[in-house]
Amino acid sequence: MIDVEATARAEEFAARWMKWVAGTSVVNSPLLDESGEDAGRKQPADVWFLGGTMGGAAQREFNVPLGRPLFGPAFCMWSPAPLALSHMEHAWGTVRVDGQDLDTIRAATSKVRIRGALGNPVTQNFWPASRYVVGVWAMIQPLAAGTHVLEIAGTNGYGFKVSVHATIHVS
């Protein structure tokens, strides 16, 4: 059974996540961050967005404020043309925190108006643009104080893979 409320929330957060990713330059993009040093850049006050990768694996370490839920893709793709869940037919993604598999949700946005930063991976420039994003997303409840291990893996089902292994310090 599809949880309509969770899907709507995932669609909203996915649109916000894309704006967050687009708002960083190639120099400090959360998608190109190899260590976690850029994970906290431009984070909103109500959720902590997780950066994926542009393909391949990343190992990161970063701090998250206590009480903040986390949201990000196990796998996603964006386009200036409309995308639908049918574009994800063979895609899959997994999210694990401290060895426990978490539920993921498939969600696609309607058109999202974004303004990028120069060289960002979403628009490549700072001019306003419209994008659509579709993906397998994780909505993670706030983690307890302490250190946690986050493992994210996903694929389009045709050989393109992403993964992130992160050590998260919550305080």
Describe the structure.
The protein is mainly beta and 171 residues long. It has one domain. Helix content is 11%, strand content 41%. The strands form 2 sheets. Strands 1, 3, 6, 7 and 8 form a 5-stranded mixed β-sheet that branches. Strands 2-10-9-4-5 form a 5-stranded mixed β-sheet, with no helix packed on it. The longest helix is centred in the first third of the chain and has 19 residues.
Write the layout of secondary structure elements.
Elements: H1 4-22, E1 48-49, E2 56-64, E3 70-79, E4 92-97, E5 100-101, E6 105-108, E7 112-115, E8 128-140, E9 146-155, E10 161-170
Parallel strand pairs: 1-3, 2-10
Antiparallel strand pairs: 3-8, 4-5, 4-9, 6-8, 7-8, 9-10
Instruction: Measure the end-to-end span.
Output: 36 Å
Which bin fits the share of residues in helices? 10-25%
Beta-strand share of residues: 35-45%
The parts where pLDDT drops under 50 for at least 5 residues are none
Structural Rg: 15 Å
Record field, number of beta strands: 10
Helix/sheet category: mainly beta
Shape verdict = globular
Mean pLDDT: 93
The number of helices is 1
Domains counted in the coordinates: how many?
1
Order of helices and strands: HEEEEEEEEEE
Main sheet properties: 5 strands, mixed
Features:
171 residues, mainly beta, 10 strands, globular
Brief account:
The chain has 171 residues and is mainly beta.
